[in-house]
Specification:
Shape of chain B: flat
Number of helices of chain A: 2
Radius of gyration of chain B: 30 Å
Number of strands of chain A: 19
Shape of chain A: globular
Helix content of chain B: 10-25%
Helix content of chain A: under 10%
Strand content of chain A: 35-45%
Largest sheet of chain B: 8 strands, antiparallel
Structural class of chain A: mainly beta
Oligomer: heterodimer
Chain lengths: 260, 726
């Protein structure tokens, strides 16, 4: 049974000082630190290598990172790099984020890694010699120390639903019309027999994120690198509620919805 | 929410043939020191701006006030911005939002060029901002409201004119359009702007001339000082505070819309353009001069005039001009545009069950009670005596009999001063409103989203089959991508005749759409292409000599704006040469259905078109063409069954020409005039059994193009319609 990762402590990256070699006026690299995916960092054009450097001030552990809302093609190479100094000739940490293409050839707007490193300087680098875009953009970077519960969620309970919120209208002739909206996923998971430590961790998570602020959840870390369909940038839509057994072990139901 | 808005040019970026639209509504607020961008959901555009997705999509509505007031209503939009996160608090405390410009665009994708302006206005001030715990609501006012002014804009004062005659102080500086000298001359008040010099001024702008000056109503000699930049003259004798001075004046001159040189502004389009640009200060870039030019070309000889001597709200002034001439003024893509208010057919978009939103379709008979079958037109307005010098009363007797009611409407025509134009306007008013007009209200899906005010759509639903209806009101709901139309069935109550251009293409070279749109048309000699429409599949291969002269088939307007009606008492005389004629009778006798033509060309054909309008329905009628007095050939016989929707029958025949010849053709009921009903019972026809008959003919150079075989009438025609036609 897989144990999910919850990444919500991202203040180090969100508070970092950024430098980049390309950003469009009005859509700066600092938008990577903004919770709104559709408020992207957009490059000023296509160059051989475009990058953003995050100076976290102190060496900081990263064991989970993801980008969301990008327009990269499958030919692009996107790399997360970490180093003790702001020097990128041969960074100590150098991990490619795999871009996943679905059976219809559509690139998922998300990519992630669970590789681990502790550095002060981190860099996100993009290369795509065959790009047909006039610019690259990424809506959100999430990176930091993810929380992993001590127990996995119960295997029989997880569910995933794909929803289409498009606004549908039916004409007299039963012809369907719609105003398009972005589809999203909804997950329901249950954790049973969580001990007090994990209960406190979930409480801390909920106090910070509530039902409003998004977090990154890797529902199934076992194949997250190859099929990020079970990794989402979303928010909790249910109250945090425990069913306490003997006032010690807790059962928690969580519902999560993707945010775009 | 039922709010009003600007209209826009075609939203070309919207693929309305698609079932799914990925549209955005973008809002741009131009503050002092900052520009804010909002959308109904987050989107980063290619202009490098991120549009914050906190705007609730407003409904956008635009409409004409009514057909009797063909002027677009001022627009207003309520824009609600979500502020649950208090993210707007800083912006609203830092910047002033009142009276700041706002633009709303609609389109698909992230390329701003693919978006079209649907509203241009400003935040109302004061009382334009409402805050709640969760939202900030902005009341947006149509930018056109800023254009409105009270005219004349200037008054005589003692600062500018220290020696102004006291009775003239505080009076408006005249704004005079048109010719007050040549036809139906009238005098305009002159202001004594310097009593020490006996200096007078007739207007605050350049005038075309001052022909005669009157002191206390008596003609006196004057010395012209200048016509530009203001019309001024002096008198030798003047008693201040006592004498009244007036003058006959050629009004304001200028280049107008597209005049080659400075000249008198007396065409409605030149005047409207000048009104907008000069006293109202509208930038020329905000005027759709193409639509102005099109309308001017449609009625090149029309002249109007008006003097603005007391306070008139510019909105009312423009509405009066539009209603007097018969066109619509509206805003398209942020620009002022005009369109002749006329019945047209347009089959480019037929809306049907696949477009109609369920439970939204209603039809009302004349909901605004515009019905009128007596028009009392008042024109030739005399500004000096504040009265109209002429009244023209027109009765729709058939309507009065049918509806057992006389409904009178007074039609004030302050811009008109010539009888023919004013009376033509009254005739059009009667034609349009002497039957209760039908108004359809219904909501449609994507394919209708590109249609805008004044456009025509075809409707195939309920009681309508391929009926052309004009959009008189539009409400766009971008949230659901629906559009609700108020559609006016103006077409089915008007005759085929239309007011059109000399330059309109002849029927045989017109495109199918032009044929549909223009039906038949005439130049100022009455030459026309066809009295009806051809079938969709018709392709003319010849007929370069085809010309027809329309005399009275239901009446038509040519470009002098006069609606010609043949009353049956003055049958046109035969004319030699390639002069082609047609005429119809008000009804009663067959005798006058004969058409006679003498032609000088050799070879080719004379095509005859004839028809009858019958009183009876569900009957078989046998009738024929009688050519040159001989017995009818089988091909000249016509047997029709009248059904419930048909009260007319038409047929064609032709005569081959071998030399300069004279031929006559008449429409005859068969034998002694027999018609049979559906069960086979036949009756003797009498003169009361048909209402009218018509014969028309044209010349054709060869037999390869048999135009009239394709004769048909417009979709949606009715008995009433046809009775006007023949």
């Amino acid at each position: 049974m897989p144990t999910p990762r919850f990444l919500w402590k991202v203040s180090a990256f969100d508070g970092a000082t950024l430098t980049t070699n390309s950003e469009a006026s009005g859509l700066p690299a600092t938008n990577l630190q903004n919770a709104i995916v559709r408020r992207p960092w957009r490059t000023a054009g296509i160059t051989q290598q475009t990058w953003v450097v995050f100076d976290l001030g102190t060496a900081t552990l990263v064991n989970c990172a993801g980008i969301f809302g990008h327009n990269l093609r499958s030919t692009a190479a996107i790399t997360l790099q970490g180093n003790a100094s702001d020097s990128w000739g041969a960074p100590t940490f150098n991990v490619a984020l795999t871009l996943i293409t679905d059976p219809d050839g559509i690139v998922h707007e998300k990519a992630m890694t669970l590789a681990q490193g502790t550095f002060r300087y981190w860099r996100l680098a993009i290369q795509d010699p065959s790009s047909v875009n006039t610019y690259w953009e990424i809506g959100r970077l999430m990176a930091g120390n993810a929380y992993t519960p001590a127990v996995p969620y119960t295997l029989e309970d997880p569910s995933r639903m794909q929803l289409d919120p498009s606004i549908l209208d039916i004409a007299e002739g039963q012809q369907a019309y719609a105003r398009l909206r972005t589809q999203y996923s909804r997950y329901r998971v249950r954790f049973e027999n969580l001990e007090r430590t994990d209960q406190d961790a979930f409480l801390a998570l909920f106090r910070h994120r509530g039902n409003v602020q998004p977090l990154m959840v890797v529902v199934d870390p076992t194949d997250a690198h190859t099929t990020p369909r079970d990794t989402l940038y979303g928010r909790i839509t249910t109250p945090l509620q425990w069913v306490l057994t003997n006032m010690v072990y807790g059962t928690v139901d969580l519902e999560l919805e993707e945010v775009w | 929410m039922y709010v009003l808005c600007y209209l826009w040019s075609l939203l070309m970026a919207l693929d309305t043939t698609a079932q799914v639209l990925d549209l955005h509504v973008l809002v741009k607020v131009s503050l002092t020191g900052a520009t804010k961008y909002y959308a109904e959901r987050h989107v980063a555009m290619d202009d490098g701006n991120w549009y914050d997705g906190r705007a609730q999509i407003p409904s956008l509505r635009t409409a004409f006030q009514s057909l009797t007031e063909p002027h677009q209503q001022p627009s207003q939009v309520t824009l609600i911005l979500e502020n649950q996160d208090e993210g707007l608090d800083s912006d609203f405390s830092t910047y002033l939002w009142g009276n700041r410009d706002v633009e709303i665009r609609v389109g698909e994708g992230t390329a701003l060029a693919d978006y079209s302006l649907v509203f241009a206005g400003y935040v109302q001030f004061p009382a334009g901002i409402t805050r709640t715990d969760d939202t900030i609501s902005l009341t947006l006012i149509d930018a056109r409201v800023r254009d409105l002014k009270t005219l004349p804009t200037a008054t005589y004062d003692t600062t500018t004119f220290p020696n102004c005659d006291p009775p003239d102080v505080g009076r408006g500086v005249l704004l005079a359009y048109g010719d007050f000298v040549t036809a139906s001359p009238q005098t305009l008040r002159a202001a004594a702007i310097d009593t020490t010099l006996n200096l007078f001024e007739v207007a605050g702008h350049t005038v075309g001339g001052i022909s005669q000056v009157y002191r206390n109503g008596t003609a006196v000699a004057h010395s012209l000082v200048s016509t530009a930049p203001r019309g001024r003259f002096t008198l030798t004798t003047f008693t201040g505070s006592s004498d009244t001075v007036s003058a006959r004046v050629i009004g304001k001159t200028g280049t107008g819309l597209n005049l080659a040189a400075t000249t008198t502004l007396e065409h409605p389009m030149d005047i409207l353009y000048d009104l907008l640009v000069d006293p109202l200060g509208v930038a020329a870039t905000r005027i759709d001069t193409g639509s102005f030019t099109t309308l001017k070309n449609a009625m090149p000889t029309l002249k109007v005039r008006r003097v603005l001597d007391s306070s008139v709200y510019s909105d009312s002034l423009i509405a009066e001009l539009a209603n007097n001439v018969g066109f619509d003024v509206y805003v398209d893509g942020g620009s002022y545009a005009v369109k002749l208010r006329e019945p047209v057919a347009d089959t480019t978009l037929t809306l049907n069950s696949s477009d109609l939103v369920p439970q939204t379709f209603t039809v009302q008979d004349d909901p605004d009670r515009l019905f009128a079958n007596r028009i009392v037109a008042k024109y030739n307005y005399d500004p000096a005596n504040t009265r109209y010098n002429a009244i023209y009363t027109l009765d729709g007797t058939t309507s009065q009999t049918d509806y057992r009611l006389i409904s009178e409407r007074t039609l004030a025509l302050p811009w008109h001063f010539q009888a023919t134009e004013a009376q033509a306007r009254a005739q059009r008013e009667l034609l349009l409103f002497q039957n209760p007009i039908q108004v359809v209200s219904a909501a449609f899906k994507h394919r209708a989203l590109l249609k805008k005010l004044t456009d025509v759509v075809n409707l195939d639903w309920s009681i309508y089959t391929d009926a052309s209806l004009q959009v008189r009101g539009v409400e766009y709901d971008w949230h659901t991508a629906r559009v609700r139309f108020d559609l006016w069935d103006v077409l089915s109550f008007l005759p085929l005749g239309r007011w059109t251009l000399d330059s309109a293409p002849a029927y045989y070279v017109a495109t199918a759409d032009q044929q549909r749109l223009q039906g038949f048309w005439t130049d100022d000699n009455g030459t026309l292409g066809s009295a009806a429409l051809l079938s969709d599949t018709f392709t003319a291969t010849n007929g370069t000599l085809l010309r027809s002269r329309l005399m009275n088939i239901g009446g038509t307007w040519d470009d002098d704006g006069v609606w010609d009606i043949y009353d049956g008492t003055a049958r046109p005389t035969a004319t030699t040469g390639n002069q082609n004629r047609a005429w119809a009778l008000a009804g009663g006798t067959m005798a006058n259905t004969t058409a006679e033509v003498s032609v000088t060309n050799t070879g080719g054909f004379i095509n005859f078109l004839g028809g009858l309008v019958f009183r009876a329905q569900d009957r078989y009628n046998l009738w024929y063409f009688e050519i040159d007095g001989r017995s009818p050939l089988p091909s000249d016989l016509f047997l029709y069954r009248m059904n419930n929707n048909t009260v007319y029958q038409v047929g064609t025949t032709r005569v081959a020409l071998s030399a300069a010849e004279t031929h006559t053709m008449a429409v005859r009921l068969s034998g002694a005039g027999i018609y049979c009903d559906v069960d086979g019972t036949c009756y003797m026809a009498t003169s009361n059994d048909f209402l009218s008959a018509a014969v028309r003919y044209g010349l054709e150079s060869s037999a390869t193009a048999d135009l009239f075989e394709h004769f048909r009438v417009l979709p949606g025609t009715t008995a009433t319609y046809i009775s006007h036609w023949f």
